[in-house]
Amino acid sequence: MGSSISIIIALIAVLLSFYGLLLGLLRIFPLWVAAPALLLSILYLVYRWNRRHQFRGF
């Protein structure tokens, strides 16, 4: 239950970061903030997704 909530939060973070990147490309928001935020949110999403499918033993 907790891992699915963190994946949903990570998806929302990716969407917000992508929106920030679009605003950065329009020079409304600083691009040097938006690009690393998108990268970190994607990395967090991949980390949480892979952690969910990890074998934890018997």
TrEMBL record:
Transmembrane feature ranges: 5-22, 28-47
Keywords annotated in UniProt: Acyltransferase, Lipoprotein, Membrane, Transferase, Transmembrane, Transmembrane helix
Alphabetized GO MF terms: acyltransferase activity
Name by which UniProt lists this protein: Apolipoprotein N-acyltransferase
